[in-house]
Amino acid sequence: MYALSHLANCLEKACKTIIFTLFIVMVITTFAQVIFRFVFFSLSWSEELSRYCLVWLTFVGGALGVRKKIHVAVEAVTLLFPRSLKIAVSRFNYVLLAVLAILLIKYGITVSVLNMQQLSPAMHIPIGLSYAALPVGGLLILIFSLELIFHPERKGGETR
Q1: Are 94 and 149 contacting, i.e. CB atoms less than 8 angstroms apart?
Q2: What is the CA radius of gyration of the chain?
Q3: CA nearest neighbour of 120 among 109, 131, 108, 107
Q4: Would you list the DSSP string of 130-145?
Q5: What is the Cα–Cα distance from 98 to 119, expressed in whole angstroms?
Q6: In whole angstroms, how far apart are CA 64 and each of 59, 61, 71, 108, 119?
Q7: pLDDT tens-digit profile of 70-87?
Q8: Side-chain half-sphere exposure of 61, counting CA atoms within 13 A
Q9: Listed residue (26, 47, 55) closest to 122, CA to CA
């Protein structure tokens, strides 16, 4: 299980770097688009790039939210449970999340591969690259969920 935790730690650092980079790219391209639209000419590719960055940011950020245990949860009932039952419910939740992640991977690969031949209108890159965020995000969520299934007392959350 140490290997899984080590992998999750490395992936968390990579996710943070990716999120930071995507956010900076979004801000710069959106700012440039506004300036160019009013001062010079409209950049045809900036809106598309920002949109694709947002898609990737959503799935990578969602995976990081799983790792950090910061997703919204209703805990009104589980707060009344004894500690051992809280851990069992937490594990069950992460098993369900792992199943969802597997579905994201499976169908995300299908959608991504089907759209690799179609090019985006402005940047002329395969649309499938945008859809590839689904299986990548699903894989990250799966790894982080597996870690939380086997180590439910990891930092964050009420199951410490």
Answers
A1: yes
A2: 19
A3: 131
A4: HHTHHHHHHHHHHHHH
A5: 32
A6: 9, 5, 10, 18, 29
A7: 888 877 788 888 888 888
A8: 11
A9: 47
> What is the rounded distance in angstroms from the CA atom of residue 141 to the CA atom of residue 55?
15
Distance in angstroms (rounded) separating the CA atoms of residues 143 and 160: 20
In tens, the pLDDT along 6-42 reads: 899 999 999 999 999 999 999 999 999 998 888 888 8
pTM (global) more than 0.85: yes
Phi-psi region of 104 (alpha: psi -120 to 50; beta: other; left: phi over 0): alpha
Q: How many CB atoms lie within 10 A of CB 24?
A: 11
Say how far apart CA 154 and CA 122 lie, in whole Å.
44
The structure tokens listed for 131 are 């859809």
Q: For residue 72, which amino acid is it?
A: V
> Which has the closest alpha carbon to 145: 90, 86, 108, 74?
90
Q: How far is CA 92 from the centre of its chain?
A: 21
